[in-house]
């Protein structure tokens, strides 16, 4: 029998997309109360689950932690053998189980209940052990799995993951978590590097090589040598109107070069960038224009900094 793989794949995706739409429509004030509880915790969030729900729980904990909400994963079986000691009365538990009757979750749920630790349940059964013993119940829609056998966790895990993302993003917004905060939590990865802003790296104040348009060639050479950027910005009435680079000096090399002023040497309308631009964008601009330095200007065209390719790399 020839399988239509594309059609089967599309059906899986449509089933999971439908589940997310149903989930969005069924969210109620319990979700808001859950966010409010987690937002005002003094401790951390322990996220737990078994099997495929456990893999989802690990991802949910990682997403929470990376977006400003301290969280960690607790394996429910390990919790029964000493890891319950991770939990404090200032923490909360997010327990994920499709059926709500996962045996391995029993000990962590009972321990949290005995110690007045809030329990958030993500399950599709309000009548289950987890559904009956939680403080905040986030119900999954009662839908079939995308698996043609209705066995492999597919739709259910997609819904669980999405609920975790929704909680994390609401907490992110409530905390006023910024791109700069995100960058600080990802200093070693490509995300951190990509989210670095020009203002984080640029040289300012006296470090900027700046002169007026009537400066002599010797003054331009001296400023270029002193500041070490291989260029000098030309400022007129407070605005950056041109730039003199070592390439400009070579192009004007001749017997009368010392009689020229910065105005005669400069390239007008230099390429500039905003201080709030990403350094990845600044690098792209430099590569596009085949230059190694960029001046940073404000809305009025006043120079506020300079950035070199070396700073980025």
Folded structure, characterized:
With 313 residues, this protein is α/β, with parallel strands linked by helices. The mean pLDDT is 91. The two termini are 56 Å apart. It has 2 domains: 173 residues, Glucose-6-phosphate isomerase like protein, domain 1 (Rossmann fold, 3-Layer(aba) Sandwich); 115 residues, CBS-domain (Roll), CATH 3.10.580. Helix 1 packs across helix 7, helix 2 packs across helix 7 and helix 3 runs parallel beside helix 7. The protein contains 15 helices and 12 strands. The relative contact order is 0.10.
CATH architecture level-2 label of the largest domain: 3-Layer(aba) Sandwich
Low confidence ranges: none
Into which percentage range does the β-strand content fall? 15-25%
Structural class: alpha/beta
The first-level CATH class of the largest domain is given as Alpha Beta
**Whole-number tally of structural domains:** 2
Strand ordering within the main sheet: 2-1-3-4-5
| H-E string | HHEHEHEHEHEHHHHEHEEHHEEHEEH
Number of strands: 12
CATH superfamily of the largest domain: Glucose-6-phosphate isomerase like protein, domain 1
Rg, Cα atoms, Å: 30 Å
CATH topology of the largest domain: Rossmann fold
Question: What average pLDDT do the residues reach?
Answer: 91
Tell me the major beta sheet: 5 strands, parallel
> Helical residue percent?
40-55%
The general outline is: elongated
Instruction: Work out the helix count.
Output: 15
Distance between the termini: 56 Å
